[in-house]
Write a structure and sequence with these properties.
single chain; three-stranded antiparallel sheet; 52% helix; elongated
Length: 99
């Protein structure tokens, strides 16, 4: 299994290396997609795809609250800051729906 690296600096201490190795065990890379393993397998979408996913699911659900949207998305997807993204993007879409 390979470790997926982003723009983070390489670990400089053994403690950091152990932490990264432990976290890397939770993720798998399969057919070009990243997944978080756990009770249920959830896909980690690329950053550029996240807003489209949030807005698409929000539209399908009739523009629920950010909290409800987060619950639905969390059953299929994972990314750090997902709750904040759901709240933010829902608050931006709601005024447009009222026009």
């Amino acid at each position: 299994m390979g470790v997926v690296c982003g723009a983070l600096p390489l670990p400089s201490t053994t403690l950091e290396e152990k932490r990264i190795a432990k976290v890397a065990q939770w993720f798998t890379w399969e057919m070009g997609k990243l997944y978080l393993e756990g009770k249920c397998r959830r896909r980690v979408p690329p950053i550029g795809e996240r807003k489209r996913i949030v807005l698409g699911v929000a539209q399908q659900l009739g523009y629920p609250s950010g909290h409800r949207l987060m619950q639905v998305l969390a059953s299929r997807y994972y990314w750090k800051g997902m709750a904040i993204d759901c709240q933010l993007w829902c608050s931006q879409v709601l005024p447009m729906q009222m026009d």
